[in-house]
Please model this.
Amino acid sequence: MAAVATAATGCGAATALVVGDDRLTDRAPVVELLVILAVGWSFAGCGLAGWARRPASRTGALMMSAGLAWFLRTAAAFPGPVPHAIGRLAGVLFLVVLVVLVAGYPDGRPPARGLLRRWRVSPLRRRAQAPAIAGGVVLLAAVGVRFLGDLLAWPRAVTVPLGWLPELTLVLWPPVLLLGLLRDRLDRATIGELVLTLSRDAPGPGRVRDALARALRDDSLEVAFPLPGGEQVDAAGRPVRLTGTTGRAVTVVDRDGDPIAALRYDATADPVLVREAAAAAGLALQNERLRAEALARLDEVRQSRARILAAADAARRSVERDLHDGAQQRLIGAALALRLVRGRIDGPEAAELATIADELDAAVRELRELARGLHPTVLSDGGLGPALTSLAERSPVPVALAVLPARRLPEAVEVGCYFVVAEALTNAAKHAGAQQVRVAVELDGDSVRVEVADDGRGGADPAGSGLRGLADRVAALGGRFDVTSTSNGTRVSAELPCG
Amino acid sequence: MRVIIAEDAVLFRAGVVRVLTDAGCTVVAEAGDAPTLLAAAARHPADVAIVDIRMPPTHTIEGLDAARALRAEHPGLGVLILSAYLEPHYAMTLLEHGVRAAGYLLKDRVTDLEEFVAAVRRVAAGGLVIDPSVVAQLLGRRRRRDPLAGLTGRERDVLALMAEGRSNQAVAARLHLSPKTVEAHVRSLFGKLGLEETADDNRRVLAVLAFLRSADPAAQVAS
Model:
């Protein structure tokens, strides 16, 4: 319908030029006719194509209107005041339509708050508006140059070619506008590419986000995955929360009715395109959500394990303090009182009291060792050096302390190293029949490596309660634990992060 | 002999006061924590301060820190630490502040009344006292190439008593030997261990302890 109307108007315009005598310009009629038809049909044809491909955008319709107005201008060629008025009005209308077209490009809706402000909003927006703005600038420049040529009375050899510039621009501009309008359509072709990328690339956290960002040409794209509890995490399982803000829009992607991901993106992006891309990436997003959920759970478990260990250590320390300041103190006081009493009496009772006091002394010694085993004070205020030296002095097997760290480490790490060495030394003496043990605690960048190697008969059982407990402790600190036990000896090693 | 006592457990402190008073000492001040102890030492001239290693607020090694301050401010005042820890490290730390008039005894040693009073007197007189259990832990350390293996049983006994801070005469009295015999043992064992002999009894204690404490005494002998 519109196409027929446009074609008819074009033919009418041609007739007007041929039969009319009121010449619009001083150029040759045939060339004039061709130029006017080229401009009008370029606008009308490209507008028609844009309308058909992007019905949601008003740009196509505006371009067709511009074409029609352009043709109607030629009505001024007919004699008489009415056609003349129509022609002049159409000329003004053509200009108005052009301005609206540029301002509202690409969706055809001029912004309420001003073009410049809109231009500043985002790179994505700028990219979309470029064809309209650039064309407008070129057109103004072409008109300006022609006007300047006339004003300065440049030679005809220059002004005649310059005179064609505005029309040339008007012929070429509509196809550029159409291309810009269809680019989103071209973007849609990248969704096919997106599917290919996702099926081809090796899986990894954040990969889906990167592929989506490429497909949507939006580097600021963020992806979050909802957990059953309602919280959101990123691809690495870290807690995040995506909410829409100025210039940012959020779309929740569903799969089988369940939300699997939330995308936050540049609000100027075509939401339909975003949804299509998200749907294409649905399976990959679902996989990544499951991975993110697992990572988040793992992190929770890790943190909870570290908290349990810290609580257990705090409890040990508290018991150690109670033993020292409670029971032990009382026992020593009682033994002292007994000995003072004993000094004042004679006879068999004195000997009995002495025996009781000796028993109390033995109890005090046992409590001291018990408290030390729970938490050695020398470790807290002296560090690994004195604490491990003390362990070596107490060990029934000769211990060579090969390397010790020169600086203090985080408390949990020192306690971890200490218990690894203590347990390994106990095993070397009790089970391995070792002749010598070598202990090394070496700092290596952000981690510390503790190694205890004996020359015993091996046979250490990593599943035994002692080594199992060490493995748990090291794992709770985010470290690695390893036991190799052969007939040539046992080597217990642990690597703990201590950044 | 004038004594200051710093100990936060009141009953135990009273017991210690009693032991010392019975032995003819004068307790000039009592304190329950380190700041009170430092203030008391400034006000009451004394020969020796008996300091619990665990005191408020953290109940870890406040006594050791207080000892350092005491020795800096009152060079003439002996400091005897009563410790809850069988750790040579702390005994060495105490001696690092100065090798005279200092002692490191386990707290339960107090119940051996005569020994305890004798130790207090030795520290007051400028000597060193190291708890026998601490020395035993150092001597008992198993070593791959043990320099102590070359010592005779008698020499080991002499070494242990020396490390506890006793003079040759005291060692002789303890082992029922003549001072000349003890001197001969000392010369012999110092030679075997490669230690420099020194006339100062206190420096000798430190040298022996440091030797025993070193990570690899065999290497020290070789050098």
Remarks:
- The first helix of chain A runs from residue 2 to 19.
